[in-house]
Write a structure and sequence with these properties.
Layout lengths: L32 E4 H10 L13 E4 L4 E6 L9 E7 L1 H4 L9 H19 L12 E2 L5 E3 L9 E7 L3 E2 L2 E2 L1 H20 L6 H20 L5 E6 L6 E3 L2 E4 L13 E6 L3 E9 L2 E6 L5 H10 L3 E2 L8 E3 L3 E3 L8 E4 L17 E3 L4 H14 L4 E5 L5 H4 L3 H6 L12 H8 L2 E5 L12 E6 L2 E4 L1 H8 L15 E4 L7 E2 L2 E2 L1 E3 L4 E4 L2 E4 L9 H13 L7 H15 L2 H4 L11 H9 L6 E5 L7
Parallel strand pairs: 1-2, 15-22, 15-23, 18-21, 21-22
Antiparallel strand pairs: 2-3, 3-4, 4-7, 5-16, 6-7, 8-9, 10-14, 10-17, 11-12, 13-14, 19-20, 23-24, 25-31, 26-27, 28-29, 29-30
Helix pairs in contact: 1-4, 3-4, 3-5, 12-15
Length: 593
């Protein structure tokens, strides 16, 4: 593309939305540019009633009023996936303050604000922008150049279903969308002089403070933080926005910490310490709501979400039971000591796991992907892999399952992995917990001392060790997104992914934020370099590639909207990909001496 970041000579740079001001048509368009917005509108009007395939003649670059529109891919018929557009607003038109995109975190935040502003400006019209929901993710839909001559240039990817009457072009409607409504929205949402500048600055600063809180956690010996005044309840089970009138969070004095942030100065709230933390309380009092806030605390949130200053370590992973999922050669010795069938538990596979074996496998898989915090809710867990009381231990001697209650403290001592558990129906964990938090009417109390009185003992590590586990090596040829020579990676909602010839069920992977991130999981899975290395090493490579190249590192030519996923959700998808084959394990080195 030649001169793709410059408006056509004579066009208004950063001017108001459409209307007013003559345009020069005496200068030839830059090389590679098809024409200007007026010509595009005229072409579309002239195509009205033509065969739908004539739309393909519009592909290419058009110098619009102050920005460039690229029609990248034209859909084959009115029922095909929408056409793909790219808008490039040069730095002198966008006019974004460099201070707001000077770091990767700030650039991601500013991009998130601009995407939402563009979605609002499009007013629910046919043009779609992947702005996302409550989480502020690194999305392929927007790039703000941070370096070089193009610094401050904004590039946005869009989808647009080109209208038709049957298989005939609805040219007048298309002209209204592409030559009028879209330019108006671009000027209103992607130029600094027209956006709500105070809101943009507040958005960026909120995300930066959230990221700073998360970064501060390890140095303070914390796995999570919930700011005083946060509102954790959601509007409904299908609406992730804040519940209006929800009870503001207030930390117990014994757990209150104050952390510095770059914009607010300091933030006070509850610090969740490393080790074993129980969240207890009666039904409907907010236990699972608090745990869910910690699950989503691995992401930054939009201002007004209620959880914008609720953060968890990036390696916090939710683990649950998942009946009938496939398990491929996972070392589950830590939880399954022996099976009546004689099948080895250090190399365990099944096509249809039970709740207990699936949760045991998911726990080891989370550790394999690098989790340093496990988030577990008894409501989504298999009881027999979580607890076994004294009476059952006495009655059943030949029990192959080792409950998590026996492993939770050795896991922290030996591997540095903390656990936060919601537990309302069993007291077996009281003598294992370092911290016990009580939820009552969404209000929080520290009841650790009382829990120890009831348990009768302080938490002890004992002599048990959490067994070392083998690290799996996958056959790269078995992780293939191609079907008959074409790559097939498609999200079907948040919880399902089509990858090559496989349909991957991700409905139990609760930390996936939205369908765009599920698409990102598929693209990252296709990108994984699995040859000759363990899964953990391949995930390290993935992280390094994304750190260097951002979303573009995993796109590989895909025009789909996607958000960059965490390594843990990529690993979860691989673990549920039935075609994937494990070729062996790398065993950890034995202890010295």
């Amino acid at each position: 593309m030649t001169r793709s970041h410059r408006p056509r000579p004579g066009s208004r740079s950063g001017g108001p939305p459409r209307g007013g001001g003559p345009r020069r048509h005496d200068a030839p368009p830059p090389s590679g540019i098809r024409g200007d917005g007026d010509e595009l509108g005229s072409r579309l009007h002239g195509l009205d009633g033509a065969s739908y395939g004539a739309y393909k003649g519009l592909a290419g670059h058009w110098a619009m009023d102050g920005f460039e529109l690229e029609i990248r891919k034209v859909q084959s018929d009115p029922f095909a996936p929408p056409s793909r557009l790219r808008v490039t607003v040069p730095a002198d038109t966008a006019g974004l303050p460099a201070e707001l995109y000077r770091t990767p975190v700030r650039a991601r935040a500013l991009g998130g604000f601009l995407l939402r502003a563009l979605r609002d400006a499009l007013r629910g019209g046919p043009v779609h922008v992947d702005a996302g929901g409550q989480e502020v993710l690194d999305r392929s839909a927007i790039r703000i150049a941070r370096d070089g001559d193009a610094a401050g240039t904004v590039t946005v990817e869009l989808g647009a279903p080109l209208p038709g009457h049957g298989r005939r072009i609805a040219g007048h409607a298309a002209a209204r969308t592409l030559a009028s409504e879209l330019p108006d929205a671009v000027h209103a949402a992607l130029t600094w002089k027209h956006v709500d500048q105070d809101a943009a600055t507040a958005f960026v600063e909120t995300v930066e403070d959230s990221a700073a809180l998360r970064e501060a956690l390890p140095g303070r010996g914390l796995v999570a933080f919930v700011a005083d005044g946060a509102v954790l309840p959601r509007a409904s089970g299908v609406d992730d926005r804040v519940l209006r009138g929800g009870v503001p969070f207030s930390s117990p004095p014994s757990l209150r910490v104050t952390l510095p942030v770059p914009n607010r100065g300091e933030v006070s709230g509850m610090g969740v310490p490393e080790g074993v933390t129980l969240i207890v309380g009666g039904g409907y009092h907010g236990k699972s709501t608090l745990l869910r806030a910690l699950e989503t605390g691995v992401y930054d949130h939009v201002p007004g979400d209620g959880r914008e200053l609720v953060v968890a370590r990036p390696g916090a992973v939710s683990v649950r039971a998942e009946d009938e999922r496939a398990v491929q050669r996972v070392d589950v010795r830590a939880f399954v000591s022996g099976l009546p069938s004689g099948k080895p538990t250090e190399d365990f596979s099944t096509e249809s796991a039970s709740g207990s074996t699936s949760q045991a496998a998911s726990t080891i898989e989370a550790l394999e992907s690098g989790a340093d915090v496990l988030l577990i809710d008894e409501d989504t867990s298999a009881t027999n892999v979580m607890i076994r009381d004294a009476r059952m231990r006495e009655l059943i001697e030949a029990e192959p399952l080792v409950p998590f209650v026996d492993r939770v403290r050795p896991l922290h001592r030996g591997h540095g992995v903390s656990t936060v558990l919601v537990m309302g129906g069993s007291g077996d964990y009281l003598d294992r917990a370092d911290t016990v938090i009580l939820l009552q009417d969404y209000r929080v109390s520290d009841v650790t001392a009382r829990a120890r009185e009831i348990a009768g003992v302080a938490p002890e590590d004992g002599d048990a060790e959490f067994p070392a586990f083998g690290r799996r090596v996958f056959d790269p040829d078995s992780v293939d997104p191609e079907v008959r020579g074409r790559r097939k990676v498609t999200a079907r909602g948040r919880g399902r992914l089509t990858f090559g010839g496989d349909d991957v069920d991700l409905s139990a992977v609760s930390q996936l934020a939205d369908p765009s991130q599920t698409t990102g999981v598929g693209l990252a899975l296709a990108h994984l370099a699995l040859d000759g290395v363990t899964l953990a090493e391949a995930l390290d490579r993935l992280d390094a590639d994304v750190a260097r190249g951002g979303a573009a590192a995993i796109a590989h030519g895909s025009l789909a909207d996607f958000a960059v996923p965490r390594r843990h959700e990529v690993a979860a998808a691989l673990n549920r990909l039935r075609s994937a084959r494990v070729t062996g394990h790398r065993r950890p080195d034995p202890p010295a001496g």
